[in-house]
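Hi C.,

You asked whether I'd gotten around to modeling the 80-residue construct. I have! Everything is below, sequence then structure, no commentary in between.
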Amino acid sequence: MSLSNIKLPDADGCWLIGEVKSRQARRGKKIAAIAVTGLVDDDDRIRILKAGFQKHLSKPVEPDKLVEVLAKLTGRDKPG
């Protein structure tokens, strides 16, 4: 699981997730990723999801919402 801001000091979160996913793919693994950002318009959301994030959450993120999304992406929201 990866959780990243989009605006980073020396890079862009979309670039970062591309690097992470590329390295994981070479190892035969998949990684779920959530973007947390103040970028909230439709164009930004689409760009972020196309970059490889499964979910886009806008700041400020409610803790309960973050826990809900993490549970769904990790499959822990299912009973059993």
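If it helps when you're writing up: Residues 13-26 form the longest helix (14 residues).

Thanks,
B.
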